[in-house]
Design a protein that fits this description.
The chain is an alpha+beta fold and 222 residues long. Helix content is 17%, strand content 38%. Strands 1, 2, 4, 7, 11, 13 and 14 form a 7-stranded antiparallel β-sheet that branches. Strands 3, 5, 6, 8, 9, 10 and 12 form a 7-stranded antiparallel β-sheet that branches. A hairpin with a 2-residue loop joins β8 and β9. The two termini are 35 Å apart.
Length: 222
């Protein structure tokens, strides 16, 4: 706390100091000293803690979020910086990941198409893919998630490119119920071999472009 709350001090009149009122004054002062020694927090310290609370979601003396403190908060940021292609049209293929930017309780597994979870709960998952066309004919892409090898019903997104060298970014978010030990895969297919998930090298003015990204954040556990 940043304010001292004191009991009302006795206010004896002039020449009206008695032993009883003096003892009451001493007890009141003792309470003030007790508050100073045990509960008082300088205002600047309290302000700093309030700023930490805003970012961490914690209230009180802890410096991390409650989920982080109890080792249940899970997250992951994954990407791939290689071109990914198809060898057979209209055939499901798992996207692979070669870069882990951040992770806790979530990791790239074996094979590297699998994102493996070690904490059960609900997770918000954000997916992006950089799709590219290598011919002027129309080509259609499909993307959808699988958990433990099973397709998620009603989850596919579909997009068509028409021009040579055309490129677009597709994205989708969803919330998934995950059990401890489950693995997630991002699947894709295309009706033309002149299609790819393409990465682009860094330029003088911009960083490299990953072919795919996956961001995972826990929203509820158990």
């Amino acid at each position: 706390m940043s304010k001292i709350f004191n009991v009302r001090l006795p206010n004896p009149g002039f020449g009206d100091v008695t032993t009883e009122k003096f003892d009451q004054l001493v007890r009141s002062l003792e309470q003030v000293i007790f508050q100073l020694n045990s509960t008082y927090t300088p205002q600047i310290t309290e302000d700093n803690q309030s700023e930490l609370d805003w970012f961490t979601g914690a209230f009180g003396s802890v410096n991390n979020s409650a989920l982080e403190d109890t080792s249940t908060f899970a997250y992951g940021a994954f990407a791939d910086f290689t071109d990914q292609t198809q060898t057979v049209v209209n055939t499901a293929k798992a996207i692979t990941w070669n870069t882990t930017a951040q992770s806790k309780h979530i990791a790239v597994g074996t094979p590297t198409s699998r994102i493996v979870f070690s904490k059960a709960g609900k997770y918000k998952i954000d997916f992006t893919a950089q799709i590219s066309s290598a011919s002027a004919s129309a080509k259609t892409f499909w993307f959808w998630p699988r958990i433990n090898g099973t397709d998620i019903t009603g989850s596919t997104m579909r997009i068509t490119l028409h021009d040579n060298s055309e490129a677009k970014t597709v994205a989708r978010s969803g919330i998934f119920q995950i059990n401890n030990g489950d693995y997630l895969e991002a699947m894709w297919a295309a009706d033309s071999l002149n299609s790819s998930l393409e990465t682009y090298a860094a330029t003088a003015f911009a960083p490299a472009v990953p072919s795919v990204t996956l961001m995972v954040m826990s929203v509820e556990h158990g």
